[in-house]
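WARN  no MSA supplied for this record, continuing single-sequence
INFO  ligand: tetrahydrodeoxyuridine
INFO  echoing inputs
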Amino acid sequence: MKQEIDWNALKEAALAARQEAYVPYSSFAVGAAILDEEGFLFTGCNIENASYGLTNCAERTAVFSMVAKGSRKIQAIAVVADSPTAISPCGACRQVLAEFSQADTPVLLCNLSEDTVQTTVGDLLPYGFSKHDITHAT
Ligand code: THU
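INFO  complex generated
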């Protein structure tokens, strides 16, 4: 049986990851923590670039870290930033999260003031493009 998700621990891991954010341009630090299906933890922060468009968001850093270690299935993700309300992932990150999630995969969005929104990948990206739209995808 799958373990209960420890949301406090996942949020704490996202907060710790946020400390490593490289944000000389926006000063807006974001952290993300993913629990995969096997119970392993992967984290990420946003990494900006002088060529602004090359910036990588915290969520995608965490997903890419998971995939680079050979893991493919997100069980849960927490994201945190110093936003006025719970952080809202950008469209690109929603698409990348969906690639390695199910529609009902839970997402916890947080800020530093204890505002939280518990949602799902499917609610964040309704009618998203996926491998099922590509007839020859495996
Ligand atoms: N950012 C994230 O890392 N995740 C989000 O969910 C929203 C935006 C980053 C990108 C950029 O480094 C900074 O926040 C401001 O847009």
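Residues 23, 26, 28, 30, 46, 48, 55, 57-59, 87, 89-90, 93 surround tetrahydrodeoxyuridine (CB under 6 Å).
INFO  checksum written, moving to next record
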